[in-house]
Design a protein that fits this description.
The protein has 2 domains: 12-20 and 28-283, Aldehyde Dehydrogenase, Chain A, domain 1 (3-Layer(aba) Sandwich), CATH 3.40.605.10; 288-484, Aldehyde Dehydrogenase, Chain A, domain 2, CATH 3.40.309. The chain has 17 helices and 25 strands. The longest helix is centred in the first third of the chain and has 29 residues, at 129-157.
């Protein structure tokens, strides 16, 4: 047993009772407003937490979920298609105000199970208590902000416009049936950032939870069932190849919301028989670089790069995945950075002040070791004490220097606690890295010379979706656009943008002559149309 990490995993009796988790055998799934019971095989849910026993460390199995087949997935799709009814279903035809009321009902019920969801976040994906609570609360805030944005959109759409002799009203309408799939690292927040906008804009949904972070949806199944009309939201489980592949092959999916790898997205999109009719909203891979210039505030740069690269063990698409540091300051930067890494507290998700936790993906520590070994073969060294040490699912961060283009870490997204540091001298070295990268999500620039920073901004504005100045890469605030270029994304997500990507504008227009104006006035005055109306939500 690794001596440094030997006390990382606890005995069962040492886990505080409030954070202990009962074994959850889930057989329920949601189709057409009913919680169905699955009598077939189940998939074990394995926690990244190991438990000390007299026989040694044993990985904790915390539950089971249904291994549904293509048959159940297609029934869920049929329910969503029927509920949408080619745009004439109850949900797409419902007023915006009424749809908001359904979402608000769900939010109230969701908040009632906060404790269960937070606890499962810790046990399923190893996210710290603080970050698990933050993810839940941020998701609730996102729903509130989405409701506010829908009301604003509805108010702005209520007016009639007159242009070049035409009078018109322009409103947003749903696209159809959406397939929503979220990632394991933010199985609640990232998933709901597509699921809720899709629903509130009038689409019907088939939702498949992430591969890891799947049990935490169970406490909300009743809330989904009770808050929306039958068929509006359908929740399935099982292997993606069987279930999701079958859904895409039907051609009945109109909107594909997916957060994962670009390879996975490509494979699924290819299955759709009418790709020109498939609207995709994708959050994919990233290799976000930090560029630390010679005049940077080192204290700030070290602090931001530390959080940016190792928050939630670096398992964020917005994490800083590679750090370029100017040769004039690289030695001092590395001294401070490795010292800061040393202060991070390893432990279990519920431990107070924990900064490093076990990794949920099977085989992840082995993969990270491969990257470290490959870097060593090409001249890099692990600089920090205990860097790269492993005990089962726990991997202590490794800071590697000097990293160069021969190493896999230079271009490959590690999605874990490995920090590659590249020394550079000329600005073009860092600029060329970003320009030639297959990814284009974000970049962080650390420095104080305005002219130098301006040159980098102008070099990167057509390469990435967001340029961060003296701060780590990140998604928030949720009102800011969240997107990417190249292989990193398709479509833009934010509170307002998400409403737009899950809808399309429809125009009612006529020549602005008296007879037509009178027809419009009569329809509006007598409320003869649900669509053509000047009513709006306060």
């Amino acid at each position: 047993m690794n001596e440094f990490l030997s006390e990382i995993f606890p005995e069962e009796s040492a886990i505080p009772k409030v954070y202990q988790v009962p074994f959850l055998e889930q057989r329920e799934y949601l189709i057409n407003g009913e919680l169905k019971k699955w009598e077939g095989p189940l998939n074990p849910v394995v926690s990244p937490v190991f438990i000390k026993t007299p026989e040694g460390l044993q990985q904790k199995i915390i539950g089971q979920t249904p291994l549904l087949t293509a048959s159940e997935a297609l029934k869920a799709l049929d329910a969503a298609v029927s509920a949408y009814q080619l745009g004439h279903g109850v949900w797409p035809a419902m007023s915006v105000g009424d749809r908001i009321a359904h979402v608000e009902k769900f939010l109230t019920k969701m908040r009632e199970v906060r404790g269960e969801v937070v606890n499962l976040l810790m046990w399923e994906i190893g996210k710290s208590l603080k970050d698990s609570e933050k993810e839940f609360d941020r998701t609730c805030d996102y729903i509130v902000d989405t409701i506010k944005a829908v009301k604003e959109l509805d108010r702005s759409s209520a007016k009639l416009v007159e242009e070049q002799g035409f009078m018109a009203q322009i409103r947003r309408v749903p696209l159809g049936v959406a397939l929503c799939m979220g990632p394991f690292n933010y199985p609640l927040n990232e998933t709901f950032s597509t699921l809720i906008p899709a629903l509130i804009m009038g689409n019907t949904v088939v939702f498949k939870p992430a591969k890891y972070g799947v049990l935490l949806i169970r406490p909300m199944l009743e809330a989904f069932r009770d808050s929306f009309p039958p068929g509006v939201i359908n929740i399935i489980y099982g292997k993606g190849r069987e279930t999701v592949g079958a859904l895409m092959e039907t051609g009945k999916i109109d909107v594909f919301a997916f957060i994962g790898t670009h390879k996975g997205a490509n494979e699924l999109k290819k299955l759709h028989p009418k790709p020109h009719r498939l609207k995709s909203i994708l959050g994919l891979d990233a290799k976000n670089p930090a560029i630390v210039l010679p005049d940077a505030d080192l204290s700030n740069a070290v602090s931001e790069c530390l959080t940016g690269s190792l928050s939630f063990n670096g398992q964020r698409c917005t994490a800083l995945k590679i750090v370029f540091v100017h040769k004039k300051i690289v030695n001092e930067f590395l001294i401070r950075f490795t010292e800061a890494v040393k202060k991070l507290k390893p432990g279990m998700p519920w431990d107070e002040g924990v900064g490093l936790t076990p990794l949920p993906e099977p085989g992840k520590t082995g993969y990270l070791n491969e990257l470290v070994d490959n870097a060593k073969q090409h001249g890099a060294r692990v600089l920090n004490e205990n860097g790269g040490q492993v005990l089962h699912s726990f991997f202590f961060p490794a800071v590697l220097f000097p990293v160069n283009e021969k190493m896999r870490l230079y271009s490959e997204e590690q999605f874990g606690p490995v920090v590659p540091v590249v020394p550079f001298e000329r600005e073009e070295e860092a600029i060329n890295y970003v320009v030639n990268s297959n990814y284009g999500q974000q970049v962080s620039i650390f420095g104080n010379n305005s002219k130098t920073i301006a040159r980098f901004i102008d070099a990167f504005n057509n390469q990435v979706g967001r340029i961060n100045l003296n701060t780590q890469s990140q998604r928030g605030p949720d009102t800011f656009p969240f997107n990417g270029r190249k292989d990193s994304a398709e479509g833009t997500l934010s509170v307002a943008d998400a409403l737009r990507v899950f809808s399309i504008r429809t125009v009612v227009a006529t020549k602005a002559v008296d007879v037509n104006k009178q027809i419009l006035a009569t329809i509006i005055k007598n409320r003869e149309s649900a669509f053509l109306s000047t009513d709006y939500i306060m």
